[in-house]
Amino acid sequence: MADDTLTIVFNLGAAWLAGSLIGLERSYHGRPAGFRTHALVCVASAMLMLISTHQGQWLGDSLSQSTIRTDPTRMAQGIMTGIGFLGAGVIFKEGLTVHGLTTAASIWITSALGILFGIGFLYPAVLVTIGTLVTLSTFRWVENHLPSEFFADNMLCYPIESVDSESEVRAMIARHRCAIKSMSYSLDERGTVYRYHMVLQTHDKQNLVQLAAHLRDSDTIQEYRLAPATT
């Protein structure tokens, strides 16, 4: 019993440490689910797996040992299904921008780590913890240096008496080395405001900065919104 107690304490402690390290990385970057959330998720998953793998201890003598059937995989399935609700809670969309996907993935893998620690698979659990920390920290730098396309949600508002034509708008966007992937039109404010709503694509984020400066200094544009897409 003493050996089992030490093993349980060690596995829970290792799960708490792994979840805390992943949570610290998330907290450092200002994500909604951080240090405390990840630590609790990992410990909870480990604890539930320990309950499943140590049924004989908490059932005691009330049942014959021959009647006890342990199936930890069913507990693991329940944990991974339930954690999806928590992960979904940190994902939200605003325009073209989707926030929280990486944090949701980190919660999901933290729960899986808790399962590994709970059943005592320490070697793969430690490797995955290190791999997760490397992915969250180092891969951020790699992503920032990879060539990629950038998208932005762009809305231009004109007073109805001085609306630039679509060809003029397209030419202005093209001068700033941006491509229009889609365009829609609307008439608002009881017919006093005309809006172009576009999705822009460019290969250099600086082009969006220069476009924003041009829109800010325009004499004809009444209002604009330029929101680069992020994840």
UniProtKB/TrEMBL annotation:
Protein's name in the database: Protein MgtC
Assigned GO CC terms: plasma membrane
Compartmental location: Cell inner membrane; Cell membrane
Pfam family, one: MgtC
InterPro entries named among the record's database cross-references: MgtC/SapB/SrpB/YhiD_fam (IPR003416), MgtC_SapB_SrpB_YhiD_N (IPR049177)
Annotated MgtC/SapB/SrpB/YhiD N-terminal domain residues: 12-144
Subcellular location, principal: membrane
Annotated membrane topology: Multi-pass membrane protein
Keyword Iron: no
Top-rank taxon, per record: Bacteria
Family named by the database record: Belongs to the MgtC/SapB family.
Spans through the membrane: 6-24, 36-55, 75-92, 104-126
Keywords: Cell inner membrane, Cell membrane, Membrane, Transmembrane, Transmembrane helix
